[in-house]
Automatic annotation (TrEMBL):
<keyword id="KW-0395">Inflammatory response</keyword>
<comment type="function">
    <text>Cis-aconitate decarboxylase that catalyzes production of itaconate and is involved in the inhibition of the inflammatory response. Acts as a negative regulator of the Toll-like receptors (TLRs)-mediated inflammatory innate response by stimulating the tumor necrosis factor alpha-induced protein TNFAIP3 expression via reactive oxygen species (ROS) in LPS-tolerized macrophages.</text>
</comment>
<dbReference type="Pfam" id="PF19305">
    <property type="entry name" value="MmgE_PrpD_C"/>
</dbReference>
<keyword id="KW-0496">Mitochondrion</keyword>
<dbReference type="InterPro" id="IPR005656">
    <property type="entry name" value="MmgE_PrpD"/>
</dbReference>
<dbReference type="GO" id="GO:0045087">
    <property type="term" value="P:innate immune response"/>
</dbReference>
<keyword id="KW-0399">Innate immunity</keyword>
<dbReference type="GO" id="GO:0006954">
    <property type="term" value="P:inflammatory response"/>
</dbReference>
<dbReference type="InterPro" id="IPR036148">
    <property type="entry name" value="MmgE/PrpD_sf"/>
</dbReference>
<dbReference type="GO" id="GO:0042803">
    <property type="term" value="F:protein homodimerization activity"/>
</dbReference>
<dbReference type="GO" id="GO:0002760">
    <property type="term" value="P:positive regulation of antimicrobial humoral response"/>
</dbReference>
<dbReference type="GO" id="GO:0005739">
    <property type="term" value="C:mitochondrion"/>
</dbReference>
<keyword id="KW-0456">Lyase</keyword>
<feature type="domain" description="MmgE/PrpD C-terminal">
    <location>
        <begin position="186"/>
        <end position="356"/>
    </location>
</feature>
<dbReference type="Pfam" id="PF03972">
    <property type="entry name" value="MmgE_PrpD_N"/>
</dbReference>
<keyword id="KW-0929">Antimicrobial</keyword>
<dbReference type="GO" id="GO:0047613">
    <property type="term" value="F:aconitate decarboxylase activity"/>
</dbReference>
Length: 375
């Protein structure tokens, strides 16, 4: 899922599930039958892994914006995986501290590999290394107990890292109860989803029917008002990974087709002449008030016509954002569509039913059974 940029996204910016869920599912499979892990055990470990990521990110103001240097899942995702696995292994406090310290030595990957085939390795490595860190800690390996508190620890990844004392367990508020995740309806960088919604709306104003073609001969210029995010500013994407990280590609595709989907990023769609003609007329503008934050950014798409008229629309919250979440049926359709090429329908439906009642499942390995294609 992460290889397609189709995973959930949080604020401050990271993909919280991808580094945690595979690790705890894999670890749960290793437990003997007499020590089976319940669905509730799995859920709690998963939530601990997500919580640790959110808390670490909130210790930095820099982390609240779209990243510039490190890919967040490689930093906090590795820590979250370690914390989740430590919870599942029932490590004591000292062992948990060591697990996080060990994980920190695995953490970090440069954002320069975004929009390449290497980026998906980030999430996989975060999950693997967090699991390994917890296992090493369970065997007695030690690290710096102050790894979360000092500038040369996790503070090495954020210039303004400032850890705070957390509330006691009796009054502890879970971050997921305060801040939900965004679920993407098409596989691309989250910032492009604002662009897609605005561009689709502009197309509806310009084209009377969805069956009609965009009148390219009448378009002088396309202006995209977006935040200044350099690694999503790709005026000439040549691969699916670059296209998924391109404000321009997503805007032009949505203008041509009226919507975005998995198929928008096929080689045929990327190479079509109409798209490149429109890309050549597209330019970005950055307003000072449009900060690169998934909580507050906006996108405005304007088409300047050759007759002097302008057609514009703005998106402040796209469909799938935590302020405008996907409907249950659309979320299920997304999963069914993604799973259908790998799993039989019975297994897919089994996963959906199991997830909805996971807190009541006695042995979470039933989920692994469905994921392996058995029903």
């Amino acid at each position: 899922v992460h290889s397609m940029d189709f995973d959930d996204t949080w604020h401050p910016a990271t993909h919280p599930s991808g580094a945690v869920l595979p690790a705890v599912i894999a670890l749960a499979e290793t437990f003997p039958q007499k020590k089976k892990i319940s669905g509730l055990d799995l859920l709690l470990a998963f939530n601990v892994g997500v919580e640790v990521q959110g808390r670490l990110l909130r210790f930095s103001g820099e982390a609240r914006n779209i990243p510039k240097r490190f890919h967040p899942p490689t930093v906090v995702g590795t820590m979250g995986s370690a914390a989740a696995c430590a919870k599942l292994l029932a490590l004591d406090q000292l062992e948990c501290e060591n697990a996080l310290a060990i994980a920190a030595s695995y953490a970090g990957a440069p954002l320069a590999n975004a929009a390449t085939q290497t980026k998906p390795l980030h999430i996989g490595n975060a999950a693997k290394h967090g699991l390994e860190a917890a296992c090493l800690a369970s065997q007695g390996l030690q690290g710096n107990k102050q790894i979360l508190d000092i500038e040369s620890g996790i503070g090495a990844f954020y210039t303004d890292y400032n850890p705070q004392t957390l509330p006691t367990l009796q009054s502890y508020p879970w971050l997921l109860e305060q801040q939900d995740v965004a679920i993407k309806s098409f596989p691309a960088h989250l910032g492009t989803h604002w662009v897609a919604d605005a561009a689709s709306s502009v197309r509806r104003k310009l084209v009377e029917s969805s069956d009609n073609f965009l009148p390219l001969d009448k378009i002088e210029k396309v202006i995209l008002k977006v935040p200044d995010v350099k690694y999503v500013n790709r005026p000439s994407p040549t691969s699916e990974h670059e296209a998924r990280h391109s404000f321009q590609f997503v805007a032009c595709s949505a203008l041509l087709d009226g919507s975005m989907s998995v198929h928008s990023f096929t080689r045929e769609n990327i190479q079509r002449p109409a798209l490149w003609e429109l890309l050549s007329r597209t330019q970005l503008e950055h307003s000072p008030d449009n900060t690169p934050s998934f909580d507050s950014l906006y996108c405005e798409v304007s088409i300047i016509l050759r007759d002097g008229n302008t057609i514009s629309d703005r998106c402040d919250t796209f469909y799938g954002h935590w302020r405008k979440p996907l409907k249950k049926e659309d979320l299920e359709k997304k999963f069914q569509s993604n799973a259908s090429s790998i799993l039989p329908a019975e297994a897919t439906e089994g996963i959906i039913e199991t997830v909805y009642s996971l807190e009541k499942v006695e042995d979470c390995c039933v989920l692994s059974t469905f994921l392996s294609g058995q029903s």
